[in-house]
Every structure is written in structure tokens, then in C-alpha cells.
Design a protein that fits this description.
The chain is α/β, with parallel strands linked by helices. Helix content is 43%, strand content 13%.
Length: 660
């Protein structure tokens, strides 16, 4: 006896209803409304293998509407993923349950990305679709031909990031991207008519997308729309007319079913209306078996994929695994050593953004998985080099993306590139505009992704552009994010070392903040050791009886060395410490930290930005020198002088403090 379609989708609905009710928290309305679309997708179209969730050619399923997380957990459990058990679902939203309130990325579980902040999943999906195109171009469509499917809500499409990423997706003609718009016309405050009157069809057609409409509760219509979208030469959005809280006599179609449990009495009525005569969390054997058979088809799909590859080109998969999926970068170690030795001899004075470009030039020549880009600031960020080959709609055989003026979208897309597997993305903008990237940076850190953010124009040193472009609080804000390494290198040597650390990092994203103005070479010796790995190290000491520790980052290390010379002229000995990365320094053993920053010395910290993140290093009578107000528009040396960050004024501050 075959199981009816509505029984398969009702299994999703009732697992969602029961889990939300037991947790007394959650969003039942979206899973109830989109259960039919999800069932059609998983039963007839999605290529996935629960026994190998990491299959590189699997279709990606992204729940951008992360508040409806129970829909995803129900699908994973029903189709046979080992990652989600019925006990996990019973513990929805409880401590240590994989079934968190919003999906949290865990490799190999079927949860492809962390979603919840609306629009982020859409951005990730564009990155995944770009990654698929890159792989397909390099390795052929026998090896790579997967699609990315996304469930998005009204809220996803209201968020500004959706415009950025979907506009770029249309520009790049990402035909492997299919978005299902849960068009239920309900948000938390009530009807979407309270705040939105967009013509979605015109909006998406203007981006260069296909726009299809379907009844989100009609099995045949949904399947037909997916089939049509799958053959398209453009990305497609399928507007699914759905009823939020489908099946609830008193709450369907209403905001009351969006973000709260239905309540015991209403659930009784839903069970009666949908003829679901089973206890909470009980799935009838024949329904569960049908779902498991849907999941088991993926094993055969992957086996056929393997056979076809072995028949046509068995070595191509090895090439993929060696050059992309392999995370080992020891081949770069000798390159970094040679580059450091070269620059030690020439000792160039360069802006650290220029230093970074030199590093990218070297590593991109031998690291094909490195995919760069910039938010319309390639020449300013120095992210584009002679090795950069532009990715566009006609050719994905490149390594550089012009993101346009879309910082928020760029960061979300980079997360998607990293999540696809085997790609190391980097992207640039000005440090001040890291504020536009912040939601995605936070998710990079939360997911533990190897994503590298290049933020140039890192201080008041950019000069004439003034307060709108001079970052003050941005470094402190970034340093406040857990599991994020924030680097501010002082010269070419430190820039090389910071890049090396970022590339070696396995589960931590990196920010590399870079200067517009030139800095002198400060590295005291030609050492194979990566001193930046410890976060801070001694650059120069005038006497072991020094009274002053000057701790600085980036361009202020050169300033600190000039102050050191001034102090020496007045018989005051000091130690200059470069601290390119607070996060790494704070992880060092206590004895190392005490050796670097001595408690019996006057500790002076120096950075042309907010002092908040530096205060922890100053004990007793120390000094935090920085800026806690917005900048000024003037040539950069005048701006530094205006904010008392000149060698003369800093020397006077220190001498005065020593006399107290």
C-alpha cells in the first residue's frame, strides 16, 4: 500500500508542531505551510545521500528562513540522516541539542549553514552556486553538476542583503540556483501589507531571474515548476502561495501561528482536521519507511556518479581532492620563508595594503582554491593582482569576483564559497565598511569558516576622506567577536606572517587590517619563525633595564620606534612590542605574556583607534594612547598631530607619566 503524499508532508508538520509545543518556544507556522513544497523537493528532485552528507556533488538545501528550523530537522530525521534522532527532535531548542532554535552549521549533518538572521542564507546560497560553477568549469559537468535550493521567507526578501546577493546572482546568470519564496503574506507584526507592496515579479525579472508562481500546496504544480526551473539558463525564484500554519482551524493564515506554539487545544483540532491519529512524535511505520526510501535513493545516485567518473576520467576526482578539498597548505611554507628572506634583504617601505597585494600575488600563483574579490575597491584594497582572472557569467574559470558596491552581500557570499567546500575566499573593502559586513563576519566566526577579510584604509591615516571613512571603533568591535583573529600587520614581514596564519587556520576566520600610508620595514631579524603566531613579540629593546613598554600595532609600530629613539636621547630606556593579533597573544602561556608586557614597567599602548580593547594590558599607572572620537579631514600627518599621536607629544606624555 503506497503512502499518500499528504501523509508524507503531514509527518513534517506534526514533528514541527509537537517539537515547538514541547519546547514551549519556536515557529510552527512556516514548517506547516512549506511542508508540501519540501516533500515534493526531497521526493522527486533533490539529490542527496544521508549516508554521505559530505558528497561533493550533492544538491545543497538551504533554509534561509531559519526560524522554521523544525522543517529542516524533520526532513533530516525522516530521510535517514544519522545526525538527527527522534530524541534530538524531542529536545528541540534545549541545551546541547543539535536541533537548535535556528539551524547551526555542522559539517556532515545535512545542516549546510547557520541561518536565522534573515537574508544570510540567501547570500550563502549565491556563494555556493558560484562555487559550483567554478568547480564545474574546472572539472567538467560529469564530476560537478549540482544545484542549490533555498527556502526563503517574506522577511528574507525584505532584508537589504537579499537585493545585493540576488542582483549579483542574476548578473552572473547562476542557473543552478533555485529559490522557493514562501509567499504566505504574513510576518510577525501581521500582514506583510503593513510594510511591503513590492511587485516581486518585476523586481526579480529586473535582476535577470525567472519568476514562476505556483500553489504551494499542489504537488503537481510544485514539481512542474521545479522541473522548469531546473532547465533554465538563469536563476529562478518560485513564488509558492502557501498558508502559514496550514491545517490549523483557528490560526492558519494568521500571524499567531508564526512565532508561538499552537497550544494543546489547537493541536487537537489540527490532528482532527488533517486526520493524523497519532501521539506526539509518533510517525507511523509505513510513512517513516517511505521517507527512508526517499533518502536511500541518494546512495544509488552517488554510486552512479562514481561509476560515470571512473568510466570517463578516474584521475579528475583525485585532482579535485588534492587541489581543492585537501586542507593541507604545507606546500606554502617554503614560499613564505623565501619571501620573508627576500624582503629582509630589500627592506621596502610600503603601505601594508601593498604588502598584502605582494603576498596575494605570490600565493595565488600556486593555490588554485584561493578565490578573491572586492566590493568595488580592487585598486584601493590591492586585492587584485596580475594572477587575478575575472569570474563572469560567460567564464567561471577564474579566481576573482567583482562584487560591486555590495559589502554585506560580498561577506555573505564568501561564507557560501567556504561552505561549499575546498575554496578559501578573501574579499576586500575599507575597514570602516566592515560595519556593513559585520552580520556575515559574526556568522563566519560562529560557523568556524576559513574566510579572510581584507580591510584596507585601517585608521585616520587615510587622511583627507575624513570621519566618514576613518575607522575609530571598528577594530575594537571586530575584536569583540569570539573566534575571530583580527590582524593589523606593521610591515611586509608581518603581512606575510599574518596571511600565513590565516591560511593555516582551520576553524577561525581572519580579518587583516591594512594601511593606506607607507610604513618602514621594522622586522629586526631574518627569522624562519612566524613571530605573529604568538600575537605579539619584541621588536626592539634599548636596555634590559628598560622602564617603558610601548605596545603598538600596525602603522603605530613605526611611530613607537621613533618614540623609543626620542626617549633614548633623554636616557629613558624602553622596549617596543608589536602586537599584530590580540586574540593569539591572549592565548599564550602566562609566562610568555608577562615576558612581553612587563608589570614592573610603564606600559604604554599605541593605536590610532579606540582604546577599549587595549585597556586590559595596562596595569597601575599605564597609558592607553589612541582616539575615542571621530576623525578629521586633513592630510594624514596633520590628523595624527591633531590627535596628539606624534612622536614629540607621545614622548612628552610618557616623560610626564614617569615623573608622577
Amino acid at each position: 500500500m503506497s503512502v499518500k503524499f499528504n501523509q508524507l508532508s503531514n509527518a513534517i508538520r506534526f514533528l514541527s508542531i509537537d517539537a515547538v509545543q514541547k519546547a514551549n518556544s519556536g515557529h510552527p507556522g512556516m514548517p506547516m505551510g512549506m511542508a508540501d513544497v519540501a516533500t515534493v523537493l526531497f521526493k522527486y528532485h533533490l539529490r542527496f545521500n544521508p549516508k554521505n552528507p559530505n558528497w561533493i556533488n550533492r544538491d545543497r538545501f538551504i533554509l534561509s528562513a531559519g526560524h522554521g528550523s523544525m522543517l529542516l530537522y524533520a526532513l533530516l530525521y525522516l530521510s535517514g540522516y544519522k545526525s538527527i534522532s527522534i530524541e534530538d527532535i524531542k529536545n528541540f531548542r534545549q541545551l546541547n541539542s543539535i536541533c537548535a532554535g535556528h539551524p547551526e552549521y555542522k559539517k556532515g549533518t545535512g545542516i549546510e549553514t547557520t541561518t536565522g538572521p534573515l537574508g544570510q542564507g540567501l547570500g550563502n546560497s549565491v556563494g555556493m552556486a558560484i562555487a559550483e560553477e567554478i568547480y564545474r568549469k574546472k572539472f567538467g559537468d560529469t564530476l560537478i553538476n549540482n544545484k542549490t535550493f533555498v527556502f526563503a521567507s517574506d522577511g528574507d526578501l525584505m532584508e537589504g542583503v537579499s537585493h545585493e546577493v540576488m542582483s549579483l546572482a542574476g548578473h552572473l546568470k547562476l542557473k543552478n540556483l533555485i529559490v522557493f519564496f514562501d509567499n504566505n503574506k504574513i510576518s510577525i507584526d501581521g500582514s506583510t501589507s503593513l510594510s511591503v507592496s513590492d511587485n516581486y515579479k518585476k523586481r526579480f525579472e529586473s535582476y535577470g531571474w525567472n519568476y514562476l508562481e505556483t500553489n504551494g500546496h499542489n504537488e503537481k504544480q510544485i514539481s512542474k515548476a521545479i522541473s522548469k526551473a531546473s532547465k533554465s539558463k538563469k536563476p529562478t525564484i518560485i513564488s509558492c502561495k502557501t498558508v502559514i500554519g496550514f491545517g490549523s482551524p483557528n490560526k492558519s493564515g494568521k500571524a499567531s501561528s508564526h512565532g508561538s506554539p499552537l497550544g494543546d487545544d489547537e493541536i487537537v483540532l489540527v490532528r482532527k482536521k488533517l486526520k493524523w491519529n497519532y501521539k506526539p512524535f509518533e510517525i507511523p511505520q509505513e510513512v517513516l519507511q517511505e521517507w527512508r526510501e526517499i533518502g536511500s535513493k541518494g546512495e544509488l545516485l552517488e554510486r552512479k556518479w562514481e561509476e560515470e567518473i571512473n568510466k570517463k576520467n578516474p584521475k579528475i576526482k583525485d585532482d579535485l581532492e588534492q587541489n581543492y578539498l585537501n586542507t593541507d597548505i604545507t606546500s606554502l611554507e617554503s614560499l613564505f620563508e623565501k619571501e620573508k628572506a627576500k624582503y629582509y634583504e630589500s627592506k621596502p617601505s610600503l603601505a601594508t595594503r601593498q604588502c598584502s597585494m605582494a603576498v596575494i600575488e605570490s600565493i595565488s600563483a600556486i593555490l588554485p582554491k584561493l578565490i578573491g574579490g572586492s566590493a568595488d575597491l580592487s585598486g584601493s584594497n590591492n586585492t587584485k593582482t596580475s594572477n587575478s582572472k575575472i569570474i563572469n557569467s560567460k567564464n567561471f574559470n577564474g579566481n576573482y569576483i567583482h562584487y560591486g558596491v555590495r559589502e554585506h552581500g560580498m561577506a555573505a557570499i564568501m561564507n557560501g564559497l567556504a561552505l561549499y567546500g575546498g575554496i578559501v575566499p578573501y574579499g576586500g573593502t575599507f575597514l570602516i565598511f566592515s560595519d556593513y559586513c559585520k552580520p556575515s563576519i559574526r556568522l563566519s566566526a560562529l560557523m568556524g569558516l576559513k574566510v579572510i577579510y581584507i580591510f584596507s584604509h585601517d585608521s585616520i591615516g587615510l587622511g583627507e576622506d575624513g570621519p566618514t571613512h576613518q575607522p575609530i571603533e571598528q577594530l575594537a568591535g571586530l575584536r569583540a567577536i569570539p573566534n575571530l583573529n583580527v590582524f593589523r600587520p606593521a610591515d611586509i614581514n608581518e603581512t606575510l606572517e599574518c596571511w600565513q596564519i590565516a591560511l593555516k587556520s582551520k576553524n577561525t576566520p581572519s580579518v587583516i587590517a591594512l594601511s593606506r600610508q607607507k610604513v618602514s620595514y621594522v622586522n629586526p631579524e631574518n627569522s624562519r619563525e612566524n613571530k605573529c603566531e604568538k600575537g605579539a613579540y619584541v621588536v626592539k629593546i634599548t636596555s634590559h633595564e628598560s622602564k617603558v613598554n610601548i605596545v603598538a600595532s600596525g602603522t603605530e609600530v613605526e611611530l613607537a620606534l621613533k618614540v623609543q629613539e626620542k626617549l633614548k636621547e633623554n636616557n629613558i630606556h624602553s622596549k617596543v612590542v608589536s602586537m599584530p593579533c590580540m586574540e593569539l597573544f591572549d592565548m599564550q602561556p602566562e609566562n610568555y605574556r608577562n615576558d612581553i608586557i612587563e608589570e614592573n614597567s610603564l606600559v604604554v599602548t599605541l593605536e590610532a583607534g579606540s582604546i577599549i580593547s587595549w585597556q586590559k594590558y595596562v596595569k597601575g599607572k599605564g597609558l592607553n594612547l589612541g582616539i575615542d572620537q571621530f576623525g578629521e579631514s586633513a592630510p594624514y600627518k596633520e590628523v595624527y598631530n591633531h590627535f596628539d599621536l606624534s612622536e614629540e607629544k607621545i614622548t612628552n606624555f610618557i616623560q610626564k607619566k614617569l615623573r608622577e
